[in-house]
Automatic annotation (TrEMBL):
Cofactor(s) essential for the protein: Zn(2+)
Ranges of residues in domain Peptidase M48: 105-372
Species: Pseudoduganella namucuonensis
Protein name, as recorded: Zn-dependent protease with chaperone function
The keyword DNA-binding belongs to this UniProt entry's keyword annotation: no
Keyword entries, A-Z: Cell membrane, Hydrolase, Membrane, Metal-binding, Metalloprotease, Protease, Transmembrane, Transmembrane helix, Zinc
Gene Ontology BP term (one): proteolysis
Transmembrane segments: 29-53, 65-84
Keyword check for Transmembrane: yes
Listed GO MF terms: metal ion binding; metalloendopeptidase activity
Gene3D superfamilies in the record: Metalloproteases ('zincins'), catalytic domain (3.30.2010.10)
One Pfam family named in its UniProt record: Peptidase_M48
Length: 1273
C-alpha cells in the first residue's frame, strides 16, 4: 500500500516536515498570546475575588457605609464568580453525529491507519469515528484538566469523503491528519480550544447572572439605575475578554496555517505531491454532490420514504452534474501532463481572498504550491476507498439510517418510513436529473439561469410578429452557446469577487488585479468591476437574445398550426414569468427580513426601534406571502403540468392554506421561528412549478419543431395555464437594499473595525480599571471626626493625621480594628486631649473632639411616615451612630412606597451658646463645654466672646482663663474688649487705666487707641472721638464697627451701611450679624439685596430668605411664610395647621393687612404664651391696643425678651396710639438696638394702619423678612 518506499518516506519527512522559522515564530507567538490571555483572565477574576474578601472585612470592622461597602463586596464577588463560572463551562469537543468503530469491527481500516501513522512517525489514534460529513479531522475529548494534562487524539473519517476519493487520495488526506498527530504544537490548539470555550461562554452565554441583573431592573426604576453600573462592568469584562481572545485567535490562526502546511508536507512525503492536491480538487464537487444528496434524502423522508444508501445517491449525482455542467473536472481530476508535472496547477489564485488574519487553513493554490515546492512524484492508487472497510454495503446502510435519525422525529401520528429499494431511489433521482432542461443539447443554457426575470411582461420574452422559417431551427443551440454559458458563469464569479474587494469584505492578492491583460490597482477596482459587469451584461444579452429567438420561432410556428399550441406556449411563458418573479420577490423580502433581524440583534440587545423595524419587514413579507396564497385561485395549471407534478388537484392544493398571523411585538419571536418554514414551503412549491413549467415548455417546443419538420399537425393542445392578472415584479438589480454596514454604536459594541475595536477596548479597559480602582478606594474603615471647637484641630488616629476645621467634620481612614490611639492638637501644637478609644457601641464610629460639640439625632419623615421626636445625645466623645446621614443635610425627597424616614446626626457646635447649652443634660456638662470653648475657640469666631463671658460669669475664678489667653495673645482686641467688659467697679477702672497707658505709650497703634476710647464715658464726646480716630485710621475695623454701631442706634441706616460692609469682611466674628443687617438695609434702600455676596456668611440670612421664598415639598409648613408674603393669609395658616407653628402664624396673619374678624378674634383668644417670640410679641401688643384688648400680658413677655428695650418701644407705641408726629415718635427710639427699631416700625403699622407714615410702611416691609412680620400691602 506504500506509495513511497518507507525509507524514502522517512527521509522525505525529515527533509520536508522540518519546522520552518515562520512555523517556530508562529508557535512561540501563539503560546505567548495564550499564556498572556490565561494570565489576564485569572488575574482579573482573582482580583475581583480578593477585593470581595477585603471589602467584606472592611464592612465587618467598620459601621460607616456598611450598606455600600457590603454592596461593593457583593459586586466584586459577583464579578469574580461571573468570570470563574466560565471555567467550569468546558465541555467535551466531541462533534455530533459520530459513530465509533473498533479494530474488531473494521480490522482492515485499523491496520491501514496504524501503518500510516507509523510511517508518519505519529501516535496511533486513540479512537476512530465515522461521520456523514465531507471531512477528515483530528479532535480531542477535552476537559478542564486537559489544560495541564495531555489529551489523546481521536480521528474522524467522513464517509462522503471516502465515497468521493480513490484510495490513494484518501490515504493522502489521512496522512495529512497524521501529520497533525505528530505535531507537538497541536497542544496549543487544544489549549486555545479550552480558552475559546471559556471566552465564548463568558461573552455569549446569557445565564442566571444576567437574569439576576435584568430582574433587578424590573423590580423598581431605582434598582434599574443601580443595576446599570454592574451591567456596565459585566459588559466591559466581556468586551475586554473578547478583545484579548481575538488576539489569541489571530496568533492561533497564523500557527494553524503553518501547521496545515506542515501536515501537507507529511502527506507529500508519504503519498507524493499530487495525491493530496487531487483530493483537494475533488472536495468541491464532493461537497456539492453531498449537499444535493442530502436534499434528496430529506425530501424522500418528508414523503415517508427511507433512502437506503445515501452514498450511492451522492455518486449518482456526481455523474449527473458532470454531464449537466459539461464539466469533465467535476468529481474527477484532469490527467497529469507527461512533461513538467511539477509545474502543473489545478488551483489558481482568486481575484479576491478572505482576510488572512482569520484564516485557519491556507488557500488551495497556496497548499498546492507548498506541496509541489519539492515535487515528489508517486503513483496514486485508484482503487475504491471502500475497500478499507469490512462489509461496506451494510456500513453504508447503517450510516444512511443514522443520517435519517439525526433529522429528528417526524411528528406525532407520522407513519414509519417505508424502506425503499436503492434501485427505486436511483430511478427517481434519475428522473429528476433527466429532465429536459438538463439535456446536453441545450448546452447548459437552462441550468441556473432565470429566463423571465429581466422582462416586465412575459410577452417581452417572444416576438409576436416574428416571421419564422422552418430552416432556422437547425441553428438553435449551437456549440458556441456553451462558451457563452461558461463565460457568463466565469464573469458572474468575477463580479462577485470584485464586489467583495470593493466592499472591503475580501483582500486583494498582491497589489493589483489582472483582468484580460489589464492591471487594476486597488483604487481602480471600481473600474475593473464596471468592466466585468459590462462584459457580463454583453454575454447575458447574447444569451437572452438566443432565448427570445427560440421562444419567438416556436410561438410563430405554433401559431400556424391548429390545436391552440401558441396560446399553450404563451401560457407556459406567463407561468414561468409569474413563478420567477414571485419566487425572487419572496426570497428577496425574506432576505431583507433576515438582514434586518441580524442588524438589530448584532449587539445582543434589541431596542424598541429594532423591534419595530423587524415587525415592519416581517409584515411586508407576510403581505407578499398572503398575495401568493390569495392568488392561488387565479393561477390554474394545465393538465400536462398537473400530471408532471403528480398533483391531486391543482396549484391551490399544492400550495395549501395560509394560516400565518400578522407579526407583532408580542409574537415576533415565535413568528421568526415559523417564517422560514412558510417561505421555504412557498418557494419550494414555486421552484418545483418552475422546473415543471420549464420542462413542459421545452418539451412542447420540441414537439412543435418535430411537427414542423414532419409537416404534420399535432393533436390539440390542452387548455393553457393561467396566471393572476396583476402580481409583483422584481427585475435583476431592483432587489431591496440590504444594510451592509452597522451603525457607529453597533460597530463600537461589536468592535467591528480597527477604530471601533480600539475605542471599545479603551472604554471597556477604562471601566474595568475604574471598577478595580473603586475596589481599592475603600481599603479601611472610616472614622468621622467632628470638631465642635472654634479652632482648627489636627487629629491623629493610629499615626494617620488630618486637620479638621472649626465646627466641621472630616472622614479619616482607619484600620478595621477594635481600638485606636487618638490625639488632638491645635494648629500651634498645643495638646487638647489624647486617649485610647474603645470598640464603640456599633454603628458608624464618630469622634467628637474633646466632646465639645452637642449632638442631636433627628429624623426626616417623608410621605405618610410618622414624625419621630429628636434625640438629644449630649456631647459624647466617641459614639457609634446608626444615622443615615452624618453631619449633612437630609435628602429633600426619597423614593419609597408609602413614605419613609432618614435619620441625621447633626452637630450643634455652630449654634449660639445658649442653644448649645440647652442640648446638654446637666449643669456639669454645660460648665465643661463652656470652659472648653472659652479655652480653645478662636476670638474671630462669632460666639467666642460670649463663651468667655459665660465662663467668667459662671465662676469668678475663671478670670485666670482670660488671663491665660491674654498671655498667649496679648494684642488680641477681642480679648482686651472682654477684659474691659468683665471687670467691674475699681477693677474696670484699673483695666482702663492700663489700656490708656498703653495707648499713650504707643500713640500710632489704632487698636490701643480704640480700646482707650471704649473706656471714655458715653456721650457725644465719645462718638466724636470714634469719628476722629476713624478719619486718622480709616481702614481700622474696630473703629468702623464703633461708628457703624452708633449710626444704627440713631436709626441712620444709610450712614451705617458702608461701615458694616467693610467690618463684616474684616472681623469674621461679626460677619454673620452684619451680613444680615446689611441685607436688611439694602432691601430698604433698593428693594433687593446682594444675596450671593451676603448669604454665604450668614446662616440666619439664608434661613430667612428660604422661608420667605418657600422651600421644601409642596405641602410642608416651610412654604407657609411664602404664602404670607404674598398676602394669602388663609393658605399660610393652612400650611401650618396642626403644627407647633400654627399659633405663631395666626398671630402674624391676624396683624396683617386684610385679616378677617374671625382671624383677629382667634388670635386675641390665644393664651399669652402661645406663638410669642421676639418677632410676634410687639405685633401682638399692637393688635391688642388696636382692638381694645389688654396688652399687658404681651408687655410682660416683651420685658422678659427685651429687658431694657421694652420701656423704649412701649413709649413709642403709646405715642403712635396718641397720634404723635413721626419725628416725636421716632425720637423715643433713639438708642434702640437695630432689630428692635425694625420690629417697632412693624408694630406701628399694625397699630396705626393706614395712618402710619410711608417711611414706616416701607421700613416695616423691607427691613424685616416674611417670618418676622405680618403682611403689609
Amino acid at each position: 500500500m506504500d506509495a513511497i518506499h518507507a525509507g524514502q518516506s522517512a527521509a522525505l519527512i525529515e527533509q520536508l516536515a522540518r519546522p520552518s522559522p515562520s512555523y517556530k515564530r508562529s508557535a512561540r507567538l501563539a503560546v505567548a498570546g495564550l499564556l498572556g490571555f490565561v494570565l489576564l483572565y485569572f488575574l482579573l477574576a482573582g482580583w475581583f475575588a480578593w477585593t470581595a474578601y477585603r471589602l467584606a472585612l472592611v464592612a465587618y470592622h467598620s459601621n460607616q457605609h456598611v450598606l455600600w461597602t457590603g454592596l461593593a463586596a457583593f459586586c466584586s464577588a459577583f464579578f469574580g464568580a461571573f468570570m470563574l463560572k466560565a471555567i467550569f463551562s468546558i465541555r467535551s469537543s466531541m462533534p455530533e453525529g459520530l459513530a465509533e468503530v473498533t479494530a474488531k469491527e473494521q480490522p482492515r481500516l485499523f491496520a491501514f491507519l496504524h501503518a500510516l501513522a507509523d510511517a508518519a512517525g505519529a501516535p496511533r489514534p486513540h479512537r476512530v469515528f465515522l461521520s456523514n460529513r465531507v471531512n477528515a479531522a483530528v479532535f480531542y475529548d477535552l476537559s478542564l484538566l486537559n489544560l495541564i494534562f495531555p489529551s489523546k487524539k481521536n480521528l474522524e473519517i467522513g464517509l462522503p469523503l471516502v465515497n468521493a476519493l480513490p484510495l490513494g487520495e484518501l490515504r493522502a488526506v489521512l496522512a495529512h491528519e497524521f501529520g497533525h498527530f505528530a505535531q507537538r504544537s497541536m497542544a496549543v490548539g487544544r489549549w486555545v480550544y479550552v480558552a475559546q470555550q471559556i471566552a465564548m461562554h463568558l461573552v455569549s452565554r446569557r445565564d442566571r447572572f444576567d437574569a439576576f441583573l435584568d430582574g433587578l431592573g424590573r423590580i423598581d426604576l431605582r434598582l434599574r439605575v443601580l443595576a446599570w453600573a454592574p451591567k456596565l462592568v459585566v459588559w466591559s469584562i466581556r468586551s475586554l475578554v473578547e478583545s484579548a481572545f481575538h488576539v489569541v485567535v489571530l496568533m492561533q490562526s497564523a500557527l494553524s496555517r503553518e501547521m496545515e502546511m506542515q501536515a501537507d508536507l507529511v502527506a507529500v512525503s508519504l503519498t507524493g505531491s499530487d495525491a493530496l492536491v487531487h483530493a483537494l480538487h475533488r472536495l468541491r464537487s464532493a461537497d456539492d454532490a453531498w449537499s444535493r444528496a442530502l436534499g434528496f434524502v430529506h425530501g424522500e423522508r418528508a414523503e415517508g420514504r427511507a433512502t437506503r444508501d445515501a452514498y450511492a445517491v451522492q455518486s449518482h449525482i456526481t455523474q449527473r452534474m458532470a454531464a449537466i455542467l459539461d464539466d469533465p473536472s467535476y468529481g474527477a481530476v484532469p490527467p497529469l501532463p507527461e512533461r513538467d508535472p511539477e509545474a502543473h496547477r489545478l488551483f489558481k489564485a482568486e481575484l479576491a481572498q478572505p482576510p488572512r488574519m482569520w484564516q485557519t487553513h491556507p488557500l488551495n493554490h497556496e497548499r498546492e504550491a507548498n506541496a509541489k515546492r519539492l515535487y515528489v512524484p508517486a503513483p496514486i492508487d485508484q482503487a475504491s476507498a471502500w475497500s478499507l472497510f469490512s462489509e461496506p454495503v451494510a456500513l453504508r446502510e447503517r450510516m444512511s439510517a443514522r443520517l435519517l435519525d439525526a433529522a429528528g422525529p417526524r411528528g406525532d401520528g407520522a407513519p414509519e418510513l417505508a424502506d425503499t429499494e436503492l434501485e427505486a431511489s436511483l430511478r427517481k433521482l434519475g428522473t429528476y436529473y433527466r429532465r429536459e432542461q438538463f439535456n446536453r443539447r441545450y448546452c447548459g443554457v437552462y441550468f441556473g439561469r432565470a429566463l423571465a426575470r429581466h422582462a416586465a411582461s412575459h410577452r417581452e420574452l417572444a416576438d409576436q410578429l416574428y416571421a419564422a422559417t422552418p430552416e432556422e431551427a437547425a441553428a438553435f443551440y449551437p456549440l458556441s452557446l456553451k462558451d457563452d454559458v461558461r463565460q457568463a458563469r466565469m464573469l458572474a464569479d468575477e463580479c462577485g469577487q470584485l464586489e467583495a474587494l470593493v466592499a472591503g469584505a475580501a483582500r486583494l492578492s498582491g497589489g493589483s488585479v489582472q483582468l484580460r491583460g489589464v492591471d487594476y490597482r486597488r483604487k481602480e477596482l471600481p473600474a475593473a468591476l464596471a468592466r466585468a459587469r459590462g462584459e457580463l451584461a454583453a454575454v447575458e444579452g447574447r444569451l437572452r437574445a438566443h432565448d427570445r429567438l427560440c421562444r419567438s420561432w416556436h410561438q410563430a410556428m405554433a401559431a400556424r398550426m391548429e390545436g391552440g399550441w401558441q396560446p399553450y406556449l404563451d401560457g407556459l411563458l406567463a407561468l414561468l414569468h409569474y413563478v420567477e418573479h414571485t419566487e425572487a420577490n419572496l426570497r428577496d423580502a425574506h432576505g431583507l427580513l433576515l438582514n434586518a433581524a441580524s442588524v438589530v440583534t448584532a449587539i445582543r440587545h434589541v431596542t424598541d426601534e429594532g423591534v419595530v423595524r423587524v415587525v415592519s419587514e416581517a409584515n411586508q413579507l407576510h403581505y407578499l406571502l398572503g398575495q401568493v396564497y390569495k392568488q392561488r385561485e387565479a393561477l390554474v395549471l394545465d393538465t400536462h403540468l398537473v400530471a408532471r407534478l403528480e398533483l391531486e388537484g391543482n396549484w391551490k392544493e399544492m400550495l395549501g392554506e395560509f394560516g400565518l398571523p400578522l407579526a407583532g411585538r408580542e409574537n415576533i419571536n415565535q413568528w421568526m421561528g415559523a417564517i422560514d418554514g412558510w417561505v421555504g414551503h412557498a418557494t419550494g412549491a414555486l421552484t418545483a412549478l418552475r422546473g415543471a413549467a420549464l420542462e413542459q415548455l421545452l418539451l412542447t417546443e420540441t414537439l412543435i419543431a418535430r411537427h414542423v419538420h414532419l409537416k404534420a399537425a399535432p393533436r390539440p393542445a390542452p387548455a393553457p395555464s393561467r396566471v393572476p392578472y396583476d402580481y409583483a415584479r422584481l427585475a435583476p438589480g431592483d432587489e431591496r437594499k440590504r444594510q451592509t454596514r452597522l451603525g457607529a454604536w453597533a460597530r463600537f459594541l461589536r468592535a467591528d473595525g480597527v477604530l471601533p475595536g480600539a475605542a471599545r477596548l479603551a472604554v471597556a479597559g477604562g471601566v474595568v480599571a475604574a471598577a478595580l480602582g473603586a475596589g481599592m478606594l475603600q481599603t479601611d474603615a472610616v472614622l468621622t471626626v467632628y470638631n465642635g471647637l472654634g479652632v482648627p484641630v489636627r487629629v491623629t488616629v493610629d499615626g494617620r493625621a488630618a486637620t479638621v476645621g472649626p465646627f466641621s467634620h472630616r472622614e479619616l481612614p482607619v484600620a478595621p480594628q477594635e481600638s485606636h490611639r487618638v490625639a488632638a492638637h491645635t494648629a500651634s501644637g498645643a495638646l487638647i486631649e489624647e486617649f485610647d478609644s474603645g470598640a464603640g457601641a456599633g454603628g458608624s464610629p464618630v469622634y467628637n473632639v474633646a466632646a465639645a460639640g452637642p449632638m442631636v439625632e433627628w429624623t426626616a419623615s417623608y410621605g405618610r411616615a410618622a414624625a419621630v421626636p429628636d434625640r438629644r445625645l449630649g456631647a459624647p466623645r466617641w459614639l457609634g451612630s446608626r444615622a443615615d446621614v452624618l453631619f449633612g443635610a437630609a435628602p429633600k425627597s426619597i423614593s419609597a412606597k408609602g413614605g419613609g424616614t432618614r435619620t441625621v446626626l447633626e452637630g450643634a457646635a455652630a449654634l449660639a451658646p445658649s442653644a448649645q447649652l440647652d442640648l446638654l443634660p446637666d449643669d456639669a456638662e454645660r460648665r465643661r463645654v463652656t470652659l472648653l470653648h472659652a479655652r480653645w475657640d478662636d476670638t474671630r469666631q462669632p460666639y467666642t466672646a460670649e463663651w468667655l463671658a459665660r465662663a467668667i460669669a459662671a465662676d469668678s475664678g475663671q478670670s485666670t482663663l482670660l488671663a491665660r489667653r491674654l498671655r498667649e495673645a496679648p494684642g488680641d482686641v477681642a480679648l482686651l474688649r472682654l477684659e474691659q467688659d468683665a471687670a467691674g467697679g475699681e477693677a474696670h477702672a484699673a483695666v482702663c487705666l492700663r489700656h490708656e497707658e498703653r495707648a499713650r505709650a504707643a500713640p500710632d497703634d489704632p487698636d490701643l487707641a480704640y480700646l482707650a476710647l471704649r473706656c471714655a464715658p458715653e456721650g457725644e464726646a465719645s462718638r466724636q472721638g470714634y469719628r476722629d480716630a476713624l478719619r486718622r485710621w480709616p481702614a481700622h475695623p474696630w473703629l468702623r464697627n464703633a461708628v457703624a454701631y452708633e449710626a444704627l442706634l440713631d436709626g441712620d441706616f444709610a450712614a451705617a451701611a458702608p461701615h458694616l460692609d467693610a467690618v463684616r469682611t474684616q472681623l469674621p466674628q461679626l460677619a454673620a450679624e452684619y451680613s444680615l443687617t446689611l441685607a436688611r438695609i439694602q432691601r430698604l434702600q433698593r428693594g433687593t439685596m446682594d444675596y450671593q455676596a451676603l448669604a454665604p456668611l450668614s446662616p440666619r440670612l439664608r434661613q430667612l430668605s428660604e422661608l420667605e421664598e418657600g422651600y421644601g415639598p409642596q405641602d410642608t409648613p416651610t412654604r407657609a411664610y411664602a404664602q404670607l408674603n404674598r398676602g394669602a393669609l388663609a393658605a399660610a395658616m393652612a400650611f401650618t395647621a396642626d403644627t407647633p407653628a400654627a399659633a405663631r402664624m395666626l398671630r402674624l396673619a391676624a396683624a396683617s393687612d386684610g385679616a378677617g374678624p374671625d382671624t383677629i378674634r382667634r388670635a386675641l383668644a390665644l393664651k399669652p404664651d402661645q406663638g410669642i417670640d421676639e418677632a410676634t410679641v410687639w405685633t401682638s401688643v399692637a393688635l391688642a391696643l388696636r382692638h381694645g384688648a389688654s396688652p399687658e400680658p404681651y408687655m410682660e413677655a416683651a420685658g422678659r425678651l427685651y429687658g431694657p428695650e421694652q420701656p423704649r418701644v412701649r413709649a413709642f407705641l403709646d405715642a403712635v396710639r396718641r397720634g404723635s408726629g413721626q419725628a416725636e415718635a421716632e425720637a423715643l427710639l433713639r438708642g434702640a438696638q437695630p432689630e428692635v427699631r425694625m420690629l417697632a416700625y412693624s408694630a406701628a403699622l399694625v397699630l396705626a394702619g393706614e395712618r402710619a407714615p410711608a417711611d414706616w410702611r416701607l421700613a416695616g416691609k423691607r427691613l424685616l423678612f416674611a417670618p418676622e412680620r405680618p403682611y403689609f400691602r
